Amino acid sequence: MNTLFQTYGLAKKFLFAMDPEAAHEATMRMLQKAHDCKLTRGLAHDMPSAPTLFMGLALKNPVGLAAGLDKDGAHIDALGNLGFGFIEVGTVTPRAQPGNPKPRMFRLPQAQALINRMGFNNHGLETFIDNVKRSHYRQAGGILGLNIGKNADTPIERAVDDYLIGLAGVYPHADYVTVNISSPNTKNLRDLQSADALDQLLGAIAQKRTELAQTHGKHVPIALKIAPDVDAEQIAAITDALTRHQMDGVIATNTTITRDQVQGLPNAQEAGGLSGAPVHELSLKVIRQLRQRLGPSYPIIGVGGIMSGRQAKEKMDAGANVVQLYTGLIYRGPALIAECVKAIEQTR
Q1: Tens of pLDDT along 189-232?
Q2: Which residue of 55, 103, 172, 214 is surrounded by the most CB atoms within 10 Å?
């Protein structure tokens, strides 16, 4: 495992010479080919064991993959072999959509950060579900989260309709479902974090979940993914809605629209969501406030700017139960997964 993971440093030089989105696509192709040739199929077995119970789900370890890396669920098995305790794919929308015009992803290497304005580009719910059904990750004991959103051309007043379509579609195939209302790259999407809109959305989702649980004979946990750019009043409204509608967890956080920590750097003023190292402290602040309001046992996934095992532990110390990686993988490579698992396990 170490030899293969160490080669990422060499590959990174070539990938970082490419357009970021093209490099991402090339990386996923290479990872898939490595999986298909059985070069990565033993990697997960070498991962440190750190069993974790989260939202009633038995995880092999508390380090997961955040949504966005595999928007269509086309590489679930290949990603699963890297040793994650759980994987989240999406965001999927009911209908296929191209996302925002290119270029739409930008590196800020001096800050170990990315800016993206992808805009939920994906091939739609039907293709997404077909990909999930073809994967073997769940049958092999992996925990799979499916992340749902709304189409860009769906008016915000009808956003609930898109989320209910998405929930009904993914429910039979998910270990948990994430409701993504926090991307800054779909117009007005973050308005759904306001008290009244969120109450309406989660109320409808809770009602639909009850129907789906009866239809499919199982309870699938539902988590809400929120932004780091929320104040104490918004966090109060969010936590009240989470508990009132008996949502199972919360993911803190998505990307930020602030640029305070990257002022003056090339690409810093590009529109979109900033991810990577600058988001770490912002997400820690939100996690602490969530934990204070939700109490000691409510499930929280900590994500945003984890670039080292130490920062994964800081997420846990702030109140997260498990963590997710995204931008850290791009800058550090898959060796970051084991580093985070070890750092968390050593402090238990």
Answers
A1: 898 998 899 999 999 999 999 999 999 999 999 999 999 999 99
A2: 55
**Nearest alpha-carbon partner for 197 in 188, 185, 210, 207:** 188
Q: Is 199 exposed, middle or buried (0-12, 13-18, 19+ CB in 10 A)?
A: middle
- pTM score above 0.70: yes
Q: What is the 3-state secondary structure (H, E, C) of 253-295?
A: CCCECCCHHHCCCCCCCCCCEEEEHHHHHHHHHHHHHHHHHHC
Domain that holds residue 138: 2-346
Domain count, the chain: 1
Report the pLDDT value the prediction gives residue 5, as an integer from 0 to 100.
Answer: 58
Residue 2 has pLDDT above 70, yes or no: no
Classify the phi-psi angles of 145: left when phi > 0, otherwise alpha if psi is within -120 to 50, otherwise beta: beta
Quote the tokens at residue 324: 């997710």
Euclidean distance between CA atoms 68 and 60, whole angstroms: 22
Domain with residue 282: its CATH number is 3.20.20.70
pLDDT at 1: 47
Question: So which residues are the catalytic ones?
Answer: 183
